[in-house]
Amino acid sequence: xxxxxxxxxxxxxxxxxxxxxxxxxxxxxxxxxxxxxxxxxxxxxxxxxxxxxxxxxxxxxxxxxxxxxxxxxxxxxxx
Length: 79
Fold this sequence. Notes:
This protein has 79 residues and is an all-alpha fold. It contains three helices and no strands. The longest helix is centred in the C-terminal third of the chain and has 31 residues, at 48-78.
């Protein structure tokens, strides 16, 4: 799914901005496929709120993983 950085690797703001559209597109495709697999072909198209909810949860999960990675990097740098 989304491309997470290995622990302690950094990137530029420009890299983050460029990658954001690709990540969102991956999440949208995954949401549509998952919803249609679960509820039948075309269900996602008829229920865009489910796609939005899926993408919101994916973004929250990625934010949590980045926060954990940054905390680990800080602890690693302090030791």
